[in-house]
What we know:
Layout: E1 5-14, E2 21-31, E3 38-42, H1 49-56, E4 64-69, E5 72-73, H2 79-88, E6 89-92, H3 106-116, H4 123-136, H5 141-144, H6 154-167, E7 172-176, H7 184-201, E8 204-209, H8 212-218, E9 221-226, E10 229-235, H9 236-241, H10 246-253, E11 300-304, E12 307-309, E13 319-320
Parallel strand pairs: 3-8, 3-9, 6-7, 7-8
Antiparallel strand pairs: 1-2, 1-4, 4-5, 9-10, 10-12, 11-12, 11-13
Helix pairs in contact: 3-6, 4-6, 6-7
Bound molecules: adenosine-5'-diphosphate and magnesium ion.
Amino acid sequence: MAPLLEFKNVSKIYNPGKDETVALDNLSFTLKEEEPTILTVAGESGSGKTTLAMLLLGFISATHGQILYKGKDIDNLRGKEKVAFRKEVQAVFQDPFAVFNPFYTVDHLLEVPINRFKIASNKHEAREKMNEALTAVGLQPDEILGRYPHQLSGGQRQRINIARALIMRPKILIADEPVSMVDASLRANILETLQVLQKDYGVSIIYITHDLTTAFHIADSIMVLYRGSVMEAGGVDEVIKTPQHPYTQLLVDSIPWPDLNRRWGQTDLVPSEDSVIGTGCKFYSRCPHAMDVCKSRPGLFQLEPYQTASCYLYKDKPELKTEALSSVLPV
Ligand code: ADP
Ligand code: MG
């Protein structure tokens, strides 16, 4: 059976030509329907995380490679298959306010997708679906339904966004920095809700973040992106407790572990533009271990059953094909 989702050598290049940006560079991974999981995609601002989300949702097309949903290229989905894809692949974005129209109540926000995707056959059933989804994300339907956006907190809004996705009974939920704009004290709790949904509803979650601490708490596996390339990937335990790539080590070293709420990577780790070596390791100019060999692009070397790093420090380890990345991602 074809995997639920397959990225096959996917690249996204914005403005191809002299001023091009390679936002995602030859990424391959799969998610299986029978093995729901939480996969974190981590990296600093500009590493290609949102591009990955937009590609997966079909909002933008890949420049190279293919994205397959249940074995079919998502660019070629038509009719019923396209509707099923739109329903089964849901997203929650950073801004909990974005999808709210100030003039409509929460009920309306939830009714729109219920009607569009014919989720319920009558008003009573629609109400039941709303109640169930709101309860599942930790809200009291009676307190929430009938309210206007300004009567809700940011945390409540983000939970409603998750409920709205959940009503569709998605198979994949892509959450792009879902709690970075939510009050710090509520973050852990909302992320735990995602974890519950993964277990109770069998939905695979792609959790996009620049925050390794939350990834460590909720995810099974992690891919660390830098300038669109996977630097390191594997189980969250392996990668975050014993990072092997110099870039991941830098990220982990910069985590102030006791304070789970600081945002890393946005101020003190900004790459300088002149540092890119077109054909070499993307981390070359910032790497304390940079060697001559790093002027050519390293492949992925397998360090542990669930850990791989794209770095010549490990050139004596077996090389892992790009296409086999998912074999080191535990579910
Ligand atoms: P992240 O979500 O990790 O911050 P993005 O996927 O938003 O990263 O961006 C990756 C790279 O692609 C960045 O260098 C960004 O400036 C560039 N980029 C993103 N969107 C566009 C676009 N529409 N046009 C041109 N460049 C873009
Ligand atoms: Mg982003």
